[in-house]
Amino acid sequence: MKRPWQSQNNETLSIIKPHPSPLPRKGQFAGRGNNINSPKRTYSPIDLLTYSLKSITHPLNSPPLKGGDMERVQLIPAFTLAEVLITLGIIGVVAAITLPVVISKIEDRQNIARWKKSYAVVNAAFNAVKADGIDVCATHNRYNPLQCSNGNPNPDLDGGYYNPEFVSAFISKLKVLDYCSPWYGNSYPPVCVAYEDTYVWGHAQGYDPLGNPTKISVAYANGHYIHYKAGKLGVYNLSTQMILMADGSVIYMGAVLGGPWIIIDVNGYGKGPNMVGKDLFGIQLWENKMLPSGAEGTTGYDDPSWGASGCSKDIGKSQASTFGEAAGAGCSYKYLLE
Predict the structure, then answer these.
(1) Which pLDDT score, from 0 to 100, does residue 144 have?
(2) Could you tell me where the DSSP H helices lie in the chain?
(3) How far is the C-alpha of 322 from the C-alpha of 308, rounded, in Å?
(4) What pTM, to 2 d.p., does this model score?
């Protein structure tokens, strides 16, 4: 008997049951052929650039999607790469302009703090030496007759020069790593062999008045190149003794032209800016007292043409033979009052 599903040749007919098209789930986008009235979401190239793909997920609490079902794309707002690069560029320009100013101000505050500390250390050492009854000056100071009253008759130490005994006693009161004298004589031993030997921590010739820096030069000496600058501040007030302190500061003991002087580079010559009123500060000595440059009674404190009369690059000389003349000299006194 022929069955309905068999052919004349008893071949079994294939009965294909069409698979119904799935209805779109709630919240799911329908295909083009399923529901022509259902809304379709489209994205322009601008939308695709303005939004970044966060994740591709299936609807919550539903079985995995199969076949031709569309996957749900979840998007969040974001910036384009161009916008990010432009923003970073603006930040970089602003930082390049403002950071040097901010860093300079921070360094200024640090140097002022170092100056106050150094002044206290030098003052304590000075008072200790004077308590031992040792005279500051080598002889009566013909440059400042009221400044030194010692009657030492040594003709080699005339006028404004330190008493060698004072120099030795003063150094003994400090925490010192090294010291030598750039003065090529036998009065203040030991003598530095050459300036370049102490270039890293002390170079009396390389300082400038405030706001008037000298360019770095290069010289060939002793078989190697040396970077140096011939500063615009004279060396008279820095040339008796150079003292490297344990904290990295350098003390220069100098003479003549208003001396004796103590000049302090609070952060060491190797760090810079090596400028009066920035990291270089000065003290004038008398037999029984010491005063920071710019204080009442110090050389030039009441002379508008001298740097000691103020704390500005516009007050004083841009090239000076003595510390008190140099622009920025009065900062030594001003900063101690802050």
Answers:
(1) 53
(2) 45-50, 81-131, 164-172, 331-337
(3) 11
(4) 0.69
